[in-house]
Amino acid sequence: MSSPDDGPVLVVGLGNPGMRYVGNRHNVGFLVVDELAARMGGRFKSHKAGADVLEGRLEGVRVALAKPRSFMNLSGGPVVGTARFFKVPPERLVVVHDELDLPYGGVRLKLGGGENGHNGLRSITKSLGTRDYLRVRFGIGRPPGRMDPADFVLRDFSPTERKDLAFQVDHCADATEALVGKGLEAAQNLFHTR
């Protein structure tokens, strides 16, 4: 993935727009791309494809960071529109999202696979017509007791989780940078040890 001749990499953080959702577990993808934007020293700008976009470089690779302005369940349209604009094929698309099946703060990188009930991923897969895009999965853990997962993901991180959330977001941003710069296998070797 790190060859500069292949064109840019599109890194999309998933979340819901608006102040009401800012601290939700479902919005951790936004937090990670915000951290990457800070590292690039830039600010997001509204793009006609329906996302806020920032262009720059990570690990020497041309990158477009994007945050869809649609709600999570409708992420596919803005993601595909942004990918088309930047001429990014699915294998150079990286989607950063919350993952119920990983413990809080766990990070896993993968290519393709199912959506595990994640409506943002489902929308992207449907719009792209393929599951073969890269995912950076940020663990948010399982809901307590019998809480509906749909309610859990729309709740803010707990006070205990918030204590080291910045560290966990930073770690996930590191993994995303490694994926962009070193490729999937090398990044997995670095970050799947936890």
Notes on the structure:
By secondary structure, this protein is an alpha/beta fold. The protein has one domain (4-191): Rossmann fold, CATH 3.40.50. It is built from 7 helices and 7 strands. It has helices spanning 28-40, 76-85, 119-128, 149-153, 159-163, 165-182, 184-191, and strands at residues 9-13, 45-47, 51-58, 61-68, 93-99, 107-111, 134-139. The chain has a 7-stranded mixed beta sheet with strand order 2-3-4-1-5-7-6. Helix 1 packs across helix 6 (165-182). The two termini are 24 Å apart. The model has no long low-confidence stretch (mean pLDDT 93). The record marks 98 as: Stabilizes the basic form of H active site to accept a proton. TRNA binds at residues 21, 71, 73, 119. This is Peptidyl-tRNA hydrolase.
Summarize the structure.
With 194 residues, this protein is α/β, with parallel strands linked by helices.
Task: Please name the defining characteristics of this protein.
7-stranded mixed beta sheet
- Into how many domains do the coordinates divide? 1
Instruction: Order the strands across the largest sheet as they lie in space.
Output: 2-3-4-1-5-7-6
Output mean pLDDT: 93
Number of strands: 7
For the record, what CATH class applies? Answer: Alpha Beta
* Uncertain residue segments: none
User: Helical proportion?
Assistant: 25-40%
Distance between the termini: 24 Å
Can you identify the CATH superfamily? Peptidyl-tRNA hydrolase
Separate helix tally:
7
Q: Sketch the major β-sheet.
A: 7 strands, mixed
Q: What would the principal axes of the Cα set say about the shape?
A: globular
Approximate strand percentage = 15-25%
